[in-house]
Amino acid sequence: MEGTIGNRPKVAIIDPNTLAAVGLKQLLQNVMPIMTIDTFGTFAELEANHPDNYYHYFVAMNIVLENRAFFSAHRQKTIVLTLGIETISQLSEFHSLCINLPEKELVHTLLMLQQHAHPKGKNLPPIPDVLQQKVLSDREIEVMSLIVQGYINKEIADKLNISLSTVITHRKNIMDKLGMKSVSALTIYAVMHGYVDINKI
Fold first, then answer.
1. Calpha distance 37→28 (Å, rounded)
2. What is the spatial distance between Cα 4 and Cα 55, in angstroms, rounded to a whole number?
3. Is 123 left (phi over 0), alpha (psi -120 to 50) or beta?
4. pTM for this one?
5. For the chain, how are helix, strand and coil distributed in percent, rounded to 5?
6. 164-178 vs 138-148: helix crossing angle, rounded to 10
7. 3-class DSSP state of 51
8. I want to staple 15 with a disulfide (CB 3.0 to 4.6 A). Which of 36, 60, 165, 188 is the partner?
9. Average pLDDT, the chain
10. Dihedral of the CA atoms 115, 118, 121, 125 (nearest 10)?
11. Interval 74-90 mean pLDDT
12. Cα 16 from Cα 31, distance rounded (Å)
């Protein structure tokens, strides 16, 4: 199947800014755990690595402008990485992602893009069974849902009528069970598994 290696669809990030590329790769891996994500510093590196094998290209704006013919021909697959809203107009034919945002907003935008492009997982291979299994208890799911909606521990305790120490214990157990260290990663997990509506975060 085109675009997959061992049934894992591939995404390319083409950005000369190594730190930006690595950071985006980490976020994308959380948003789309079934993806294999490769990073390239130049368009030439992408060209040398079977560019047609990729489901999506996340590309720095200057690289799109310098190689417009290629990316216009692959418009549906291309997401332009911009630093501000005002720069998007010259590339209006493409989907774009403003990366100059606080982490929470960037995660929200990525999830919106993913849901818009692949509603209910359309055009994506099925998630492996191990990632679909229910890992958390019902109470942990309730706590997680409130965490990602921005409630603090005290508010969660009041809402669920449990003690503060119980909330803290649930929080630790959720992070341990899912192997996550940040609320952003938790947010992505909660939205991707349908535990929280994206409009509530």
1. 8
2. 8
3. left
4. 0.68
5. 55, 15, 30
6. 90
7. helix
8. 60
9. 83
10. -140
11. 77
12. 22
Alpha-carbon span 97 to 68, nearest angstrom: 17
Rounded to whole angstroms, the Cα distance separating 179 from 27 reads 15
What is the per-residue burial (b if ≥16 Cβ within 10 Å, else e) of 98-113? Answer: bbeeeeeebbbebbeb
Task: Say how far apart CA 29 and CA 24 lie, in whole Å.
Answer: 8
- As a whole number of angstroms, the distance between CA 139 and CA 17 comes to 42
pLDDT, tens digit, for every residue of 36-81? 899 999 999 999 999 999 988 999 999 999 999 999 999 988 999 9
| Beta strands, E only, the chain | 4-5, 8-14, 36-40, 56-60, 78-82, 95-98
Distance of CA 27 to the CA centre of its chain: 5
Rounded-to-integer distance, Cα 37 and Cα 26, Å: 9
- Amino acid found at 129: D
What's the sign of the alpha-carbon dihedral 128, 121, 197, 182? Answer: positive
